[in-house]
Amino acid sequence: MSQLNYLEKLLDGVEVEWKDLGDVTQYEQPTKYLVKTKNYDDSFETPVLTAGKTFILGYTDEIGGINRASEDPVIIFDDFTTANKWVDFDFKAKSSAMKMIKSSDESKFMLKYVYYWMNTLPSDLIDGDHKRQWISNYCAKKIPIPCPNNPEKSLAIQAEIVRILDAFTAMTAELTAELTAELNMRKKQYNYYRDQLLSFEEGDFEWMTLGDVTKKWYSGGTPTAGKPEFYEGGNIPWLRTQEVKFSDVSETEVFITPAALKNSSAKWIPENCVIIAISGATAGRTAINKIPLTTNQHCGCLEIDDKKALYRYVFHWVSFNYENIKALGQGARGDLNSTIIKNFRLPVPYANDPEKSLAEQARIVAILDKFDTLTTSLQEGLPREIELRQKQYEYYRDLLLSFPKSDEAA
């Protein structure tokens, strides 16, 4: 595809007319397609759709009032966010808040061309603005219609643009599926070897508690919020539980000042501690701090006695037992505490021979670290690769839809 001349070649000098979206599409509420029950089950055939991110709420066995979008596709439009999705499968709708857009004249306007064009438009939304976007905004947006006086040629041009963008969409989806499959395979390999290496059902090992191999337990604190002298210009790393994600921590999102450290329960924690979130939704998640730092009160930190256990061995064991540790939480929030954590047991191989024990722990850690590094690399690379492909797709989409604008459209 020529980056400069492809659209000009496709148009071949034909006229382009800019029309209101409201003129080329029909807009309706899906009232007659509303689901009547909430008896959703994945074994049922008909998806129930809603506007927004969730989109498919579930599946229903209702047989009446089904929108046959497999025969006549529609664009599902969210009036309050301008999000839209192409739907070419049969469905029922959750509520009339979800809107549908169809072509006003299929002999002149190709709906999927309209769909791709809508995705190039800025929403013009203002934070907190809950106006219905179609009525107040989108129906007046201008869409370029090539060769409007020759519907057959116009549809051919629209179809060629759709064909190219469909191909890019399919390529992006295929790549995403391949990368996701690779990531899932690596995760399965990692889990398999971790299960094998950490399943101490027989052999020379001894059950000990985390407290037995811990030199010191650290808790944290939160400096008073709203006091600039505690946060502004701070250079002391301060870790929050949302940053505890079964990985190494080399930096924090928030920093505090020496005044905050002096006037709160926060305290310095040496590097290479096993950090465990002990409160709320994050309880049981773990991390290792690769730098000295401070934490909030919802983190508990184990400084491991390196003569008894390797901190990375403890980290892998605690991560492996995330669900078991989380299940020990108390109260409505499922909170953990130092007693619960320090009483949790771990297997120590060759416990009566410290040198041999640490060597065996090191062997296990080396294997698990390799799989962990590979899996983490894929997890981090996958979003970047998908984002790159999405930007490439958007570039060609915008290139294909860069029609010369009339003064009114501009």
Short description:
This protein is an alpha+beta fold and 410 residues long. It has eleven helices and 19 strands. Helix content is 36%, strand content 20%.
Please explain how this structure is put together.
The protein has helices at 6-11, 21-24, 111-118, 133-136, 151-197, 228-231, 258-262, 311-320, 322-326, 338-343, 354-400; strands at 16-20, 25-28, 46-49, 56-60, 74-78, 84-87, 92-93, 98-103, 142-146, 205-209, 214-219, 236-239, 247-249, 254-256, 274-277, 286-289, 294-295, 299-304, 345-349. With 410 residues, the chain is α+β, with helices and mostly antiparallel strands. Among the domains are: 18-146, Adenine-n6-DNA-methyltransferase TaqI, Chain A, domain 2; 205-349, DNA methylase specificity domains (Adenine-n6-DNA-methyltransferase TaqI, Chain A, domain 2), CATH 3.90.220.20. A five-stranded mixed sheet has the order 11-18-15-16-13, covered by helices on one side. 27% of the residues are buried.
CATH class of the domain at 205-349: Alpha Beta
User: How many DSSP H or I helices?
Assistant: 11
What is the CATH homology-level superfamily of the domain at 205-349?
DNA methylase specificity domains
Radius of gyration: 29 Å
The tally of strands reads 19
Largest sheet: 5 strands, mixed
What is the secondary structure topology, with strand pairs?
Elements: H1 6-11, E1 16-20, H2 21-24, E2 25-28, E3 46-49, E4 56-60, E5 74-78, E6 84-87, E7 92-93, E8 98-103, H3 111-118, H4 133-136, E9 142-146, H5 151-197, E10 205-209, E11 214-219, H6 228-231, E12 236-239, E13 247-249, E14 254-256, H7 258-262, E15 274-277, E16 286-289, E17 294-295, E18 299-304, H8 311-320, H9 322-326, H10 338-343, E19 345-349, H11 354-400
Helix pairs in contact: 5-11
